[in-house]
Design goal:
ferrous iron binding, 6-stranded mixed β-sheet, two-stranded parallel ribbon, single chain, Protocatechuate 4,5-dioxygenase, Chain B, about 280 residues, zinc, Xdiol_dOase_suB, alpha/beta
């Protein structure tokens, strides 16, 4: 399979590949991580080298919110520079990974609980390309995005993720991209290179404990975890991608944490690999 057309032609008959493809939650942090080499991006590259090469990547990014659920369905998704105040070299970056209309159709079909609309307007936002570019810099693997329906509660997103399990069996890397602790209104610029408020470290440790003990229901009901959780998640879009990752966990799968660091006082880069 050497061309995009070949991939699209055979997507619906992708064979199951034995062991499940791992699933990730990536704390993506600043858009500058898309072009910098630092402790976080080196870990992204390391994780990619440790895993089997995926047949495609499906990203649930904090930066694509929609009414209803949508999936990118174009041959060549554009690189979206959905940020401001950064240097020109970041805006100049293009990540020309192919899409896959056939995989978009297949994904829409396997999600039975809700109609998934094929989207031809979005592309790859910085929650997707800044991470995937560091993992797969040659841009040859098809990359798609699945939107987050902002009208739905956390339990909806967790259950929707479970419908994607067939893709893991076909070698598709499913990745949630956000940040467990994400409160931009409280960022402390003097701590931007490392460090967290007490409440941020407290709730991040609690999140990690709940992930490692498999207590998904407490993570779904994060609004019941107290004041620290309210500060960590003033709006849910950066947290919900974690629920997509957890929804795909199977019994007995290994969990590992990486990039477990607070930055800017009120952000954490903590990331999760399952499988």
């Amino acid at each position: 399979m050497n061309t995009l057309n070949d991939f699209n032609r055979f997507t619906n008959s992708l064979p199951e590949q034995g062991p499940l493809m791992p699933v990730l939650f990536m704390g993506h942090g600043s858009p500058m991580n898309g072009i910098e080499t630092n402790e976080f991006t080196r870990e992204w590259a390391r994780i990619a080298k440790e895993m089997p090469t995926p047949s495609a990547v499906l990203v649930v990014s904090a930066h694509w919110l929609s009414r209803g659920t949508r999936i990118t369905a174009m041959d060549l998704p554009p690189t979206i520079h959905d940020f401001g105040g950064f240097p020109p070299e970041l805006f100049a970056v293009q990540y020309p990974a192919p899409g896959s209309p056939d995989l978009a159709k297949e994904t829409a079909k396997i999600i039975r609980s809700v109609h998934v609309e094929e989207d031809h307007d979005w592309g790859l936002d910085h929650g997707a390309w800044t991470v995937v570019r560091q993992m797969y810099p040659d841009a040859k693997i098809p990359v798609l995005q699945l939107s987050i329906d902002y009208t739905k509660p956390p339990q909806y997103h967790y259950e929707l993720a479970r419908e994607l399990m067939a893709l893991r069996r076909k070698g598709v890397l499913i990745m949630g991209s956000g940040n467990m602790v994400h409160n931009l209104r409280m960022v402390a610029w003097e701590m931007i290179n490392g460090g967290g408020y007490d409440w941020a470290l407290e709730i991040n440790d609690q999140f990690k404990h709940l992930i490692q003990t498999g207590d998904h229901q407490s993570l779904i009901r994060y609004d019941q975890l107290g004041r620290a959780a309210q500060l960590a998640i003033p709006t849910p879009e950066h947290y919900l991608p974690l629920l997509y990752t957890l929804g795909l966990q199977q019994s007995g799968e290994e969990i590992s944490l990486f990039n477990d660091k607070a930055v800017g006082g009120s952000l954490t880069m903590t990331s999760v690999k399952i499988g």
